[in-house]
Amino acid sequence: MRHQTLFLAALGFSSGLFAGSAQAAEQLAVIRAEYREVAQTYSVEGVVEAVRQSTVSAQISGRVKEVNFDVGDTVKKGQVILRIDERETGQALAGSQAQVMQAQAALTQAKANYQRSMQLFEQKYISQSALDKAKADYDVALAQAAASEAGESQSALAHAYASVIAPFGGVVASRLVEMGEMVTVGKPLMVGFDPTQMRVIVNVPQYKLAEIGTHPRVNIELTSLKRWVKAAAVTVQPSADARTHSTQVRVSLPANEKGVYPGMFVRAHFVVGRAKKLLIPSSAVVRRSEVVAVYVVDDTGAARLRQVRLGEAAGENEIEVLVGLNPGENVALDPVKAGMSVAR
To answer: Under a CB-based contact definition with an 8 Å cutoff, are residues 289 and 324 in contact?
Structure first.
């Protein structure tokens, strides 16, 4: 009560103002505080992460000559996000193609020699050893042709790596390279994520696992957005952290949930049962520094500010009152309007 008195004094209220408020107050919209059976929840804080998030790295060495996207840009699957100077890989590819042509020419000649040697051997003009040598030369030419074609394919693949392609559609989270910078194989270039598929990661103590069950119902409170969403799917990991004695739970959000991005702080509410709670709308609560209060309206229409102690949120728009309010009392829905009526 001492906190309440200080709070009212800070707002400039006095007993005289309270006495006159019943006469001056306009009719206020109110709601009756009542006990209702709602879901009993266990709440735990969590962090949002993307289901699909990857770091694209360089697969060849070279100088970055083109950067097509920056942080926050939307990228479609298959688009070229940056290019690395391909002159070196282009020369290697040209050399491999020349080796293929050379090997094919040698193979053609070796094949012709082998065919002639077989004809001459049938006519007994050459020995068996001469035929065997022609056959060996042909086999060597075949192997060299196959090796040169494999080398050409490898060079072509390396040349294609000069164009860095987006593996999936999404948003660029960070760019780790600048135009003209020299990169080597394995250097991270960009980080991207798919904003259409997000999930929440929470750590649940082991002693709570039996209570939430293997297929829990979860509601996610997006605190910064002042919005609640129902979990699309929940996965309880079949392992525990030996240090924290907790188990990771992955809560999938509905697809294309707007305004959600990796790293956001959220709160997960696991339904563990049913309970009767004294509830009021969250919008009816007045918060000033350390004081939490509501405007209670009596039968004459006069509003009185009363300090309360709150419990857990019971959904998107309601909150539990633990102390300071009795069932059946009327609470002003618009605390600003109620405060103005008291001040008159």
So the answer is: no
Q: How many Cβ atoms from other residues are within 10 Å of residue 237's Cβ?
A: 13
The model carries a pTM of 0.67
Backbone angles phi, psi at 141, to 5 degrees: -65, -40
pLDDT digits (tens, 9 = 90+) for 70-95: 999 999 999 999 998 887 777 777 88
Q: Which of 305, 246, 241, 316 is nearest to 281 (CA)?
A: 316
Tokens of 136: 């060996």
DSSP string computed for 252-271? EPPTT-TT--TT-EEEEEEE
Residue 172: other Cβ atoms inside 10 A: 19
- The one-letter amino acid at 90: G
Range of the domain at 327: 1-51+195-344
| 269 and 231 part of one domain | yes
| Residues 5-24: b if buried by 16+ CB within 10 A, e if exposed | eebbeeeebeeeeeeebbee
State how many domains the chain has: 3
Torsion of the alpha carbons at 60, 61, 65 and 70, rounded to the nearest 10: 70
> 337 and 240, same structural domain?
yes
- Nearest alpha carbon to residue 106 among 152, 150, 144: 144
Q: In 3-state terms, what secondary structure has residue 295? A: strand
